Amino acid sequence: MSKIHVTTTINGDEVEFLADPRETLLDCLRDHVGLTGSKEGCGTGDCGACSVTVDGTLVCSCLVLGVEAEGKDIRTIEGMADGATLHPLQRKFIEHAALQCGFCTPGLLVASKALLDKNPNPSEEEVRYWIAGNLCRCTGYDKIIRAIMDAAAEMRGEAA
Amino acid sequence: MAKLEVHLWSGLRRFVDGADKVEVEASTIGTMLDGLKETYPGLAPIIDAGVSVAIDDEIVNGSRHRQLSSEQEIFILQKIKGG
Amino acid sequence: MAKDEYREFRLVGTRPDRPDGLDKVTGRARYGADMTAPGMLWGAVVRSPHAHARIVKIDATKALALDGVKSVVTRADFPEGLTGEDWNLQENTIAGEKALYDGHAVAAVAATTRFLAEEAARLIEVEYEVLPHVIDVDEAMKPDAPVIRHGVSDTTVPEGMSPNIVRKIEFGNGDLGAAFAAADLVMEKSFKTEATHQGYIEPHACLGQMGSDGKGEMWVCTQGQWYIRKMCSAVLGTEASQLRVTPSEIGGGFGGKTTIFMEPLSLALSRKAGGKPVKIVMSRSEVLRATGPTASASMDVKLGMKKDGTLSGIQVEFRMQGGAFPGAPTEFALYCGLAPYKFGAVEAVGYDVIANRPRCAAYRAPGAPMGSFAIESLLDEMCLKLGLDALDVRFKNAVVAGDRAAYGPKFGSIGFVETLEATKNHPNLLAELGPNQGRGIAAGYWFNHNGETSVSMAISEDGTAQVSVGTPDIGGSRASIALMVAETLGIAYEDVRVNVAETGSLGVNEPTHGSRATFASGKAAVLATEAAIKEMCKRAANEWGIEPDAVEWADGAARPAGPNAGQFPPMTIKEIAGAMGSTGGPISGHHESLPDGVGASFGCHVVDVEVDPETGRTEILRYLVVQDAGRAIHPSYVEGQYQGGAAQGIGWALNEEYVYDDKGRLQNSVFLDYRVPLASDLPKIDTVIVEVPNPGHPYGVRGVGETGITPPLPALANAVRAATGVRMTHLPMSPSKVLAALKGR
Prior knowledge:
Strand order of the largest sheet of chain A: 2-1-5-3-4
Structural class of chain C: alpha+beta
Shape of chain C: globular
Largest sheet of chain A: 5 strands, mixed
Shape of chain A: globular
Structural class of chain A: alpha+beta
Distance between the termini of chain A: 54 Å
Number of helices of chain A: 5
Largest sheet of chain C: 7 strands, mixed
Number of strands of chain C: 26
Helix content of chain A: 25-40%
Number of helices of chain C: 19
Number of strands of chain A: 5
Oligomer: heterotrimer
Largest interface: A-C, 57 and 59 residues
Strand order of the largest sheet of chain C: 3-5-1-12-9-10-11
């Protein structure tokens, strides 16, 4: 099967790669673009470890074909920090010990950023239902929720 | 060398003529286990598969040369590991 | 004493940022599947679709004819003549005469791309003769059950039992008949739990390379790189020291990554393909089908209690199937389920049974959750019948230091009563409950473990320190070890870097399992650091011209010990380190042992639930974990273990189970159908860290990782009982099951 040439923008940079038409966007990010921050946990869109945004929409990259990236604006975990400056969510995850093994963390950070971009003042329940698509097996989610709520408060300019 | 009293779990009784504790002359965990195997050959496969030894309140693994005394309470247990 | 009431140390007990935090929140951290190598091939595994079948023929001709396919391996490529556990490992890695479970590997192939490898795997033709199978533990014990394998039973199993019964455990003491006669209430009940999976989000992945000379390298996500090395070498017939295994960051393990699955296949494929590296990444479906879920259990308990709540006797029989090989954790289910209380007379029997399922691996306190589910549920039921308070009855019978455990030895320093005290005083117990709501309480226990430990540390030229440990960091242990070493040296936390080393750099280390890393690697790191401190004091002594034992170490510097030693200004670690090249050379410390002084950890959980009478769904309103940590080196990561263990227990109690069809094939091998708890399923999980320091550890550490999964199963069953009046005895308590029970009420 011959490969398809894809030109796209990833974390603000123009990127080109050759994709087997069967490859997912996750495969292409990890195997062709060297961005291994997005993880495969299930391959069926159930765990959210592969979360990225495509033109601002939160998706499971294991359910998007690599060729669909053509001409799109893709944002992954690697683009979340601004150079050496971490996004408040990243800082709060470390501060609140909201990660143990860290495998679900990239997906959770991308997903929670997508939430806060849409809704800067979510309730705890709204956060829990938004990140219901991101499985974590280590933490029981408690410190993750605290980190997200605290980051949201900081981004709104309030004290935690 | 001391006369040591070693407690066994009840499933092992049939290899030691029905006793729940046996006596063995030994000075270390290793010589104690070897002594048990020699006197009661039925215990050999079980000991060889691996056991933990409890000395008073401490569960000990992998210490063949650990000294034992007759004042201590010695138990043989299934080997402890974890997940 | 509860955690936040005092602080004794400068660093131990604080909450600094973990050292791997930055890598993990930026996506930089590299896990099992994140490594590539030049010339790398991809591996794929051919797996049996049958629960039990003779393998008649394997024909790889079509696969090998495909351009890009570089090697195919079957059992014929592995050495013969292994015995015991080595044989078990080899047989589970790749089937011999029979496929023993749905998903059992029968062949593997390496090709230049992942798609090619998968296509080649589909082209390998395997002819099977399907055999009758058995997957239920009680069914497998019956005399007419299909026999999985003959000759597996050991000498503990009486004559005449099914060959599927491979081990029998028996222990006890006292006069049970008299004990039950003396009781005011004797009840018996049977309980069942289903197989569950550790459910780590990261599938198994490795990149293995081995040349024709038997020298190899492997990058793999594992809890124990020395176990991987030892087991792969045994299975392949190669030498352990010639295989260097590097652990990646690990995306969860919980016991499921303490053994091998496809790792030897990667090395065998590589060797056959001229030494090219071979990467194998399992799919989620492969993980659930063909790695190491828990055993399933069928348990009978008979308990005697006096009117005042004193326990007078207990009789238990536990039957557990651990897949097609011996190793169901029956004895731990018994030991741990019985551990918290003085029962009077005890009679305990357990069976380890084989069945046509994947070989069970450890899962966080293996066996303990099942045992506690049965015993704590019946205990709760009897408290209800006698009108007694659940916590008071636990206080009444709780073991303390010096008491004899049901399985024989005495307890040393333990904190069960302190844990119950902290539970009793917690505000959650005052929360009011409404209709369809109920509260459940249960206790739990895990021994904790020491295990083989090798640690090395060194002082760098600038006075900072590095520590090499062999225990992969699955819960924050690098932070805890850095805290302990920095505390011991008297330097800043940030000045200590902890590295998890590959097998070529240290002596043998047991995996991060058994709740041992903070205890054992931590203790060894402290002892190694003390050795380095001794050397640094000697360098100062030599500089001052006094005896080494006249020098002591405090606050990061060598100082004369007392006024008689002489008047010298302290020599800081920076000064000593800067000069070490001209005062005798490098300064290091190392320690190898099975560190003694393990301290056990007791826990108590309280859960409030609301059960919807129309759907059978159980909602968790409040969840409290109280557990004895000995000393919480980094409290956030101790809390994390408490919360994580609770969440897994909640999933096990309410929803998770392996579902098989009538052909013995796993039906729910993806996360949609194997339903683990989501963020929307859980409330905040309250924690209380109790500290009864363990005298056997320099900072009082008790392992904490495993106890926390033990109480949730009975706590939830007890809560559902309180909310509905129905005693659920077969987990999980999924909505459909609860609804059926409510309707039958």
